[in-house]
Write a structure and sequence with these properties.
Length: 279
């Protein structure tokens, strides 16, 4: 009787996992199937799940356009540059908040974290005139600065949670031996904080890579356009929408983030759970 109950429990648990997994992966499966459908099978009253005549024409057309490679390059520059600078700045800020005691430390940290309370559209209203004043509109540098502003508070908090869990005795011992503060940070603390730094870098990169609002507003030149606005303006419009091509490009532009997460998921999970449990 006990074995029968265990078998039923395992079967029910397996069915539940399959149902949840199917629900989560259904949009991705539909995206892949739509990308290999001809246009005549997409615009029908009752679309079929599987394509009757699979085709790779959407992918051939995608790689036949030079705009796609240009947009991928622009996204790599802006998202990669923004993530690297975010990691660097948030590392110094988080280490300062976690291991130093000075006047105004907590109010400054809370003020930085409060930026996450506001919608991104509201932050755009503040960022736009600042970049306009600095003559950085429609430039990659201006877009990178915008990405840093948006990702810095959350990145600082994640690194702060990691630095606070590092024993202060290690730092004090290095100070007693005569090590400078910069030596302690770069040679002792940062090697221990690699998982958290990878987490912040991957988080900021994914956010910048998937961004549409800021890149569409701050960049107007076609040669500087990133993958988000490029996808929207190339395949979707008022008169006609090429859903097969849009799905094909969506799959291609998702690969850098998917591959990055696949290679760095060990550090990503370790960085997210840092500070949650203390020994």
């Amino acid at each position: 009787m006990l074995l029968l109950n265990n078998w039923r429990a395992r079967s029910g648990f397996t069915v539940m996992l399959l149902a949840i997994g199917g629900f989560l992966f259904l949009p991705i499966i539909w995206m892949v199937l739509t990308s290999i459908k001809p246009e005549g099978e997409v615009f029908v009253r009752i679309p079929s799940i599987l394509p009757h005549v699979p085709t790779l024409e959407n992918y051939r057309a995608l790689f036949g356009h030079s705009e796609t490679l240009m947009q991928l390059r622009n996204s790599l520059i802006t998202a990669g540059g923004g993530s690297l600078l975010t990691v660097m700045l948030s590392t110094y800020a988080a280490y300062s908040f976690a291991k130093f005691r000075y006047f105004g430390r907590k109010p400054l940290m809370f003020m930085m974290l409060s930026a996450q309370m506001f919608p991104f559209a509201m932050l755009l209203i503040s960022v736009y005139p600042m970049l306009q004043w600095a003559n950085l509109l429609n430039t990659r540098i201006g877009l990178i600065i915008a990405y840093i502003i948006l990702a810095l508070p959350s990145g600082t908090y994640m690194l702060y949670s990691y630095f606070i869990s590092i024993p202060s005795e290690i730092i004090e011992a290095a100070r007693v031996d005569g090590a400078s503060e910069m030596y302690i940070l770069h040679r002792i603390v940062l090697p221990l904080a690699i998982p958290a730094m990878v987490t912040v870098g991957l988080y900021s990169f994914m956010w910048a890579w998937n961004d549409l609002l800021f890149s569409l507003t701050l960049i107007t030149s076609p040669e500087l356009r990133t993958v988000g606005p490029g996808l929207l303006l190339s395949y979707l419009g008022e008169g006609r929408a090429n859903w097969g091509g849009a799905m094909a490009e969506s799959i291609v532009i998702s690969l850098p983030v998917v591959l990055g997460f696949a290679f760095l998921q060990r550090y990503f999970i370790k960085g997210l759970t840092a500070g949650a449990v203390k020994s």
